[in-house]
Amino acid sequence: MKTVMLTAVAMVAFAANSVLARLAFATADAEPLSYTGIRLAAGALTLALLLAVRRQSLRPAGSWSGAAALFGYAILFSIAYVLLGAGTGALILFASVQIGILGWAIYKGDRPGAVEWLGFVIAVAGLVYLVSPGVVAPHPLGALLMVVAGLSWAAYTLIGRGSTSPLADTAGNFIRSAPIAIIMIAAGLAMHGVSPTAGLYAVASGALASGLGYAVWYAVLPSLSRTRAAIVQLTVPAIAAAGGVLFIGEALSPRLVVATIAIVGGVALALVTAGRRRG
Predict the structure, then answer these.
(1) Cβ atoms within 10 Å, residue 198
(2) How far apart are CA 176 and CA 183, in angstroms?
(3) Distance CA 60, CA 40 (A)
(4) Residues 221, 258: Cα–Cα separation, whole Å
(5) Degrees (nearest 5) of the Cα angle 18, 19, 22?
(6) pLDDT digits over 77-91, tens only?
(7) pLDDT in tens, 165-202
């Protein structure tokens, strides 16, 4: 029950990141450099304070590979959300996450069966349909950037499955990203400035949805198989889309609905079948 509750908290945090980013860029005149920098710095500070309260060492744990994956995801995520809606962005992001995890499994020697390949093809077809040119297609550059952000998050998730100290490892990854975050804040302030509202959204995203949310995620990952870790993240686009409708007034297009069904259904089919085969 504890794992289920913590996993639900992590999924809400992931969706909150999408909604907060879209609110910042669509309503508060935010720009990607300062938003990402504030988000990473706020996460690093929050996690360092938590370590201090718990009297744990402030010497960063984590890894440089984890920090690089975190930074790559965060900056590309921010730039993409200048161009995409909350629901569409989350769908592309987490479809790419699942494809990345499945691709890594295949690379490591896992040989999917026919049904798993069918699910994988359906999911990719849904993503291609979503981003294909048309009146309601998402911005192509935004979609491409979000795909790469999703692959970066897939790497971060796979790295985190080996974590034995989730709070310290998450803190270490954020602290390693702090120097470049400070540079990004300075560059963003020099070029554009930051409105108080945009800064508040970035702090909330970094301190709560990212810092604490990712620590929770690293805490539950050792209890989840790779299959389950991938499947539960399929709930995020739906949560983010609902948040976009409720808080930003975004519409749910028929293309987004159809693509969501194809991507979620296809990946779920592939992963559930894979889990049963391994079992």
Answers:
(1) 23
(2) 13
(3) 15
(4) 30
(5) 85
(6) 999 999 988 778 888
(7) 888 898 999 999 999 999 999 998 898 888 999 999 99
